[in-house]
Design a protein that fits this description.
The chain is 48% helix and 10% strand. The chain is mainly alpha-helical and 463 residues long. Helix 16 crosses helix 18, helix 16 crosses helix 19 and helix 17 crosses helix 18. The structure holds glutamic acid.
Length: 463
């Protein structure tokens, strides 16, 4: 194999949504290729016609797109390549590396019943060609019966399989359809895939796949079988642990950049680095950093990573992301006036939010219009005494310049004049500006809303 740029691929079976385990596999392949000027290909393994649906394919493409994993070229349909898979099986037949097997499923079952714990060896493997019946046949690989097949795995090390424990796998069924295992090898070879990075549930398949590569005299790609993701309790990840679909995380309002960061760390590490951007991930990602032990999902860590990415996101990106998030969850687009009020507040708010809903919740005051409808708690903060303080503050604010220092000074003055703490001044302001008792700082809200809108909301509350 040359040291040319690598070619990786993601090969999902379109039978459901994009699982976060699949998303992580895709991410690893994408990072490996993109960090080395290579190509990242997408192959839809839609040979199982009963279980594959166009909706599932669309969901997978949508998930990858949301996660920002762009693939090179058009997605390849494995099903569409069946003639090619059959062609290779017939070539192997001609070359003698495969043979016609006339054993019927019933015969094989009967053989197995009589030979418990033994690997099926077809009676047709070494049969005299003259004895061939005029009957349907499967094409089986003439696999080596002695010695070992070794997977030199970049994560698992050398994994050794005894050949006498691997049966002659079927390449082409008697109905002419290729087996999945055979199709994967032909496709990976034809797509010039150099690195197969996938879940370690495919490790035993790799042994059989390697036998096909060897029979064809094809270059064997680098295999990297990554441990599956476990739940926080160390058990295999399932719905009972929480969300397992990538779309669930998108809907919860985690930024795609945070998911890339978090998923990259799920099973791979670069020293102690927990927080990084795409450029760093691309530069750092390698197969050596993939651990042998299953990674555990850690929702707290995800929140932390997410908060970091929201907090460091450039303003324009954050606004785009918030708009996309609202569209995704079916909320109306932000209007110009909402954007004008929210934007100045974001610089402060983004450091406190861990998800987009949290950010929008903190920015609620900027999204509402007058008259503000206080909720019950906010209403209680607008009692007679508070209203008097509010009107004193409103009067003081008429003449100040609209800067944080001046606003703070005015509020302090009112507090001192009334012998009360600043919190007592702030409470009715929160109620008047946001209609709530839990809000960002009143000064941040005043600055974001501007003089006119702030004074108008205060006047509304004063009645
Ligand atoms: N289609 C397989 C899956 O979804 C992946 C096969 C492969 O990566 O070789 O698990």
């Amino acid at each position: 194999m040359t040291a040319a740029a690598p070619v990786t691929r993601f090969a999902p079976s379109p039978t459901g949504y994009l699982h976060i385990g699949g998303a992580r596999t895709a991410l690893f392949n994408w990072l490996y290729a993109r960090g080395r000027g290579g190509r990242f290909l997408l192959r839809i393994e839609d040979t199982d016609r009963a279980r594959s649906t166009p909706e599932a394919t669309a969901a997978i493409l949508k998930g990858l797109t949301w996660l920002g994993l762009d693939w090179d070229g058009e997605p390849i349909s494995q099903f569409a390549r069946q003639p090619r898979h059959a062609e290779v099986a017939r070539q192997m037949l001609e070359a003698g590396t495969a043979y016609r097997c006339y054993s019927t499923p019933a015969e094989i079952e009967a053989w197995r019943a009589g030979h418990p714990n033994q690997t099926f060896v077809s009676p047709w493997r070494d049969a005299d060609p003259a004895s061939r019946p005029d009957a349907p046949f499967a094409i089986r690989l003439r696999a080596p019966r002695t010695g070992e097949t070794v997977i030199r795995d970049a994560v698992q090390g050398d994994v050794v399989f005894r050949n006498d424990q691997l049966d002659d796998m079927v390449l082409l069924r008697s109905d002419g359809t290729p087996t999945y295992m055979h199709a994967v090898v032909v496709d990976d070879h034809d797509m010039n895939v150099t690195h197969v990075i996938r879940g370690d549930d495919h490790l035993t398949n790799a042994a059989r796949q390697v036998q096909v590569y060897q029979a064809m005299g094809w270059d064997i790609p680098v295999f990297a079988h990554i441990p599956l993701i476990h739940g926080p309790d160390g058990k295999k990840l399932s719905k009972r642990h929480g969300a397992v679909g990538l779309h669930d995380y998108a809907a919860m309002g985690y930024p795609a950049a945070a998911m890339r960061n978090y998923l990259a760390r799920l099973g791979w590490s670069h020293g102690d680095d927990e927080l990084f951007d795409d450029a760093q991930a691309r530069a750092w990602f390698d197969l050596d950093g993939i651990g042998k032990a299953p990674a555990r999902l850690d929702f707290k860590k995800l929140e932390h990573v997410s908060g970091h990415h929201i907090g460091t996101m450039p303003q324009a990106t954050l606004l785009d992301e918030l708009s996309a998030f609202r569209a995704e969850v079916g909320d109306p687009p932000l209007t110009d006036i909402q954007l004008a009020r929210l934007t100045p507040a974001l610089d402060v708010l983004k450091h406190k939010a861990r998800t987009y809903p949290q950010l929008l919740e903190q920015g609620h005051f900027a999204l509402i219009d007058r008259p503000v409808q206080p909720d019950a708690k906010a209403q209680a903060a607008l009692d007679t005494v508070s209203l008097r303080i509010l009107s004193e503050l409103t009067a003081a604010l008429q003449h100040v310049s609209w800067t944080r220092d001046a606003l703070e000074a005015a509020a302090h003055q009112v507090a001192e004049a009334n012998g009360i703490g600043l919190g007592k001044v702030a409470a009715p302001v929160r109620a008047a500006l946001a209609g709530r008792t839990s809000t960002p700082s009143v000064f941040d809200m005043m600055l974001a809303l501007g003089r006119d809108e702030t004074l108008a909301r205060l006047a509304d509350a004063a009645g």
